[in-house]
Structures are given as C-alpha cells and as structure tokens.
Amino acid sequence: MKISHSLVTLFGLIVIGNAAFAPAQRQVLVTYPEDTPHSILQEAKEAVLAAGGKITGEFTLIKGFAATVSNEILDSVTTLSKSHRPTVEDDSVVTIQKQDPLEE
After folding, report:
1. Segment (H or E) for 38
2. What is the bridge-based pairing of β-strands 87-90 and 54-58?
3. In angstroms, rounded to a whole number, what is the distance separating the alpha carbons of residues 78 and 72?
4. What's the pLDDT tens digit per position in 26-70?
5. What is the edge-to-edge ordering of all strands in the sheet holding 64-69?
6. Is 77 in contact with 48 (CB distance < 8 Å)?
7. 52-69 burial by CB neighbour count: b if 16+ within 10 A, else e?
8. Integer Cα distance of 14 and 97 in angstroms
9. Which residue would you say has higher pLDDT here, 15 or 88?
10. Spatial separation of the C-alpha atoms in residues 64 and 66, rounded to whole Å
11. Are the beta carbons of 31 and 86 closer than 8 angstroms?
C-alpha cells in the first residue's frame, strides 16, 4: 500500500512539473498569400500538431487556419517558406458596435 501511494505521489509531481514547464499557448489566426501552394499550408498545420498545438479552425475563402500554439511553434511555422510568409494575428473578438462599459 505504501508503494502505490508513493507511486501516485511521484506521478502527480511529474505531471505538475511538466505542466509548469509547458510553453504558454495563445490563440492565433495564420493566413497565407493567395498564391501559396496547398503543400505549404499543410506542412504548417502538421508542424503545429507535431509540436503539441491544436488546429481550431480552417478557412475556405482564404488560405489559413486558426490554432492554439506556443510562440516557439509560431517561429517555426513562419519560417517554413521564404517566398510564402504567413501573417499571424492574435485571435480575438471583433465587433462593429461600440460596447457600453457598464455591460461588460
């Protein structure tokens, strides 16, 4: 019984320790120029997934995707192609109406 309690404690410390060192994630929109080959877009999405990021949406009218990623992943994705560089923006809510500060 004491051994299993020690193993559970050790496992918990490993999980907590790994979470403490995990890079901060941010939600971004990654868009590419219109003439970007599909292969470059696919390679970028695969790089995000391979590095532990998440693709949260894919665009159909423009070449790009939404993702939750770390800055390190973004650095590698933006340097995949010298001739087809993506634009990376933080994903946020955009409105066309002025917000009343009392309603927030």
Report:
1. helix 38-50
2. unpaired
3. 10
4. 999 999 999 999 999 999 999 999 999 999 999 989 999 999 999
5. 54-58, 64-69, 26-31, 87-90
6. yes
7. ebebeeeeeeebbbbbbb
8. 47
9. 88
10. 7
11. yes
Higher-scoring residue by pLDDT: 42, 76: 42
Does 57 or 76 have the greater pLDDT score? 57
d(CA 42, CA 62): 14
- Mark residue 30 as left, alpha or beta (left: phi above 0; alpha: psi -120 to 50; beta: remaining): beta
Q: Provide the total of helices (H) and of strands (E) in the chain, helices listed first.
A: 3, 4
- Cα-flanking dihedrals φ and ψ of residue 63, to 5°? -85, 110
The pLDDT confidence band at residue 78, using thresholds 50, 70 and 90, is confident
Average of per-residue pLDDT across 72-76: 84
Maximum Cα interatomic distance, the chain, rounded to a whole number of Å? 63
CA atoms of 16 and 24, how far apart (whole Å): 15
